[in-house]
């Protein structure tokens, strides 16, 4: 047992995970694939400061920190805290991938030293969670302050001889860029333009991109389902939704045409699945909107083509228009013991037909006081000549329910 966790379960997961990871890594090596940012830095050659070879050494050291010095189960679960998602090596690699895609989609040109600092910031920004943690400090406190401890970590690694001492200007810039990944830091406090090795550095922009690239590591890989199933009995309720919200996200895409960040999800078919999924995916969308709003002025300055967040259905490829204002609420009051999913779905579809191109909220009010709200984007034309009351009575047994309709509410009441 470790922190109350059954390590037999963990060992089984580690074995499967490492075997899969190993085969994937071999595949990448055989294909000669590398992250685009790293390839660009390598193509720059070795200048006096911004060297690929120097970054490579630092990255290797930090990889060892998050795979060897940090127990695997802790990097994935943050066992003592309340977050239970991946802050390990794969997290950094996914951020690097997001960062690369954002640069590519935006058409922004980065100098060799900017690429160098971008890569270092990706690999250093969370390292304070581990090497920056103070004695007797809780994981929660370490998380709250980790963005401000990059300088301490760098000095610790230099003192131990694990990395070479950085130039003062290099270290100062890196620490500043890393700190900005946290929304506790106002990005306006970071210098807009700096210089390193004679090259201009868009330091505020680099920090803003890091913040968004980090926040966009939100898909199912961030919270592996296998771990969730193994540790379902010990994951606190507070952490459960933080974990589950990742499971519904298939991928994150960047769409220059629509200037959007697209959250791709596969919607379930059953009403209960839809209710839960709408709630969690909408939560993710709102979180990313808030992150994007925090960098808006900076992205506008550099014409970064990411101004809003959209939900996209994986199966159809269609966008879900969830950001328009609701026109009203459909309230369906029902007996909790007779919650008929099929009937409620039919009612939802029916209301779409009668409201046209509008958005409403379907609010299911259970007889014991519980409420479930589903935001429904509606882009249907009015096609029915029947009144809403007449249509509802065709779907529902008229002997069991009564229907009352006003401009913003439909009440389906058991008689």
TrEMBL record:
Protein origin, superkingdom: Archaea
Listed InterPro entries: HD-CE
Residues of the HD-CE domain: 83-290
Name of protein: HD-CE domain-containing protein
Organism from which the protein derives: Nitrosopumilus ureiphilus
């Amino acid at each position: 047992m470790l922190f109350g966790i059954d390590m037999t379960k963990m060992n089984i997961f580690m074995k499967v995970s490492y075997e899969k990871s190993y085969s994937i890594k071999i595949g990448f090596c055989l294909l000669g694939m590398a992250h685009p940012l790293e390839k660009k830095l390598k193509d720059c050659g070795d200048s006096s400061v911004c060297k690929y070879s120097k970054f490579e050494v630092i990255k290797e050291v930090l990889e060892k920190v998050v795979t060897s010095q940090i127990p695997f189960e802790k990097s994935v679960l943050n066992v003592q805290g309340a977050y239970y998602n991946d802050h390990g090596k794969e997290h950094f690699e996914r951020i690097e991938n997001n960062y690369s895609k954002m640069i590519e989609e935006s058409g922004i040109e980065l100098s060799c030293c900017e690429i160098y600092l971008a890569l270092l910031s990706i690999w250093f920004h969370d390292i304070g969670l581990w090497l920056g943690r103070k004695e007797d400090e809780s994981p929660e406190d370490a998380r709250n302050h980790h963005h401000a401890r990059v300088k301490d970590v760098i000095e610790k690694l230099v003192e131990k001889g694990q990395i070479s001492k950085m130039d003062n200007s290099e270290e100062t810039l890196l620490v500043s860029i890393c700190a900005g990944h946290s929304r506790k830091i106002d990005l306006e406090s970071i210098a807009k333009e700096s210089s390193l090795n004679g090259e201009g550095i868009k330091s505020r922009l680099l920090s803003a991109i890091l913040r968004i690239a980090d926040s966009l590591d939100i898909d199912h890989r961030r919270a592996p389902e296998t771990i969730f199933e193994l540790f379902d009995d010990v994951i606190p309720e507070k952490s459960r939704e933080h974990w589950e919200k990742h499971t519904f996200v298939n991928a994150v895409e960047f769409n220059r045409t629509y200037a959007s960040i697209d959250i791709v999800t596969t919607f379930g078919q059953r009403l209960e699945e839809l209710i839960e999924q709408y709630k969690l995916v909408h939560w993710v969308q709102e979180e990313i909107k808030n992150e994007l709003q925090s960098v808006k002025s900076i992205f506008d300055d550099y014409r970064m083509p990411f101004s809003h967040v959209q939900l996209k259905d994986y199966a159809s490829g269609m966008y879900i228009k969830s950001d328009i204002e609701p026109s009203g609420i459909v309230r369906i009051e029902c007996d909790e013991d007779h919650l008929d999913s099929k009937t409620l779905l039919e009612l939802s579809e029916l209301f779409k037909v009668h409201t046209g191109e509008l958005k409403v909220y379907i609010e299911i009010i259970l007889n014991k006081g519980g409420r479930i709200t589903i935001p429904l984007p509606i882009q249907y034309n009015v096609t029915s000549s029947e009144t809403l009351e007449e249509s509802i009575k065709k779907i529902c047994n008229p002997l069991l329910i009564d229907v009352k309709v006003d401009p913003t509410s439909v009440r389906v009441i058991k008689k």
